Amino acid sequence: MDTAQHTSWEAPDAVLDFTAGTSVAGRNRLAVQDVVEGTRLWRLALTLGWLDIKLRYRGSMLGPFWLTLSTGVMVAGLGLLYSVLFHMDIHDYLPFLTLSQVLWGFIAGMVGEGCTCFTQAEGVIRSVRMPMFVQAIRTLIRNVLVLAHNIVVIVVVFAIYRVWPGWHAILALPGLALWMVDSIALCLLLGTFCTRFRDIGPIVGSIMQIAFFMTPVIWKAEQVGSAAMWMPLNPFYGLLEVVRAPLLGGAASGTSWLAALVYSGLLCLASWSMFVRARARVAFWL
User: Where in the chain are the domains?
Assistant: First the structure.
């Protein structure tokens, strides 16, 4: 082989990935490259997420609005029941419950679908060379679209009871931005971990069921009295409160924001560590 030709030869991408991945710096560089390339393909992720919703409700008359209808029925039923059990004014309780249920639905949906972020896209990952980060964005967009349909329930209930957050609603935007970052981190962490260990998904689902009752979703933090001071130890409480409180016309406390930022930082750190170490192996685990 000619020397010039030999020196100009470039290794295939798979070889480059393998050799660069032997060092920590190399794995980090490849992970950053995956994130950058995946972000550039956000239009593809948007299309895939929208297509997932269309395929999920193909042949249905109402489509995704079945979720809106079921959410509305559940909120109405729980609102009437728990307002009596907790001896609460339904005019104050039902808007709180509606907002909490819809927001929790997004969180639970992201956790659940984060576990299957890569396994659901097995065919694409095996057949097309594409950044793994695209699948995380795809999962996020899919759940944001579901959330957008359920916002209708919030608007209807708020209109009936004449509850409007006013300018305080703007304070929810930083919380929503934090949610977007955490959602991507969840997909990368749980998606990678659950691809390797398939029995982790059901365990996460069981934990989320317990977390639902341990988090102020259908009940208010002040109902537990002095024990409310320990609420920030619940990682879901701070994240829920930084978005919920402004939309109810108030502002999240500094403690809630501190807890949300600390838990989000730990989540992102764990997610990045897992993604860097296992990104190149996901396709082989599918």
Answer: 24-285
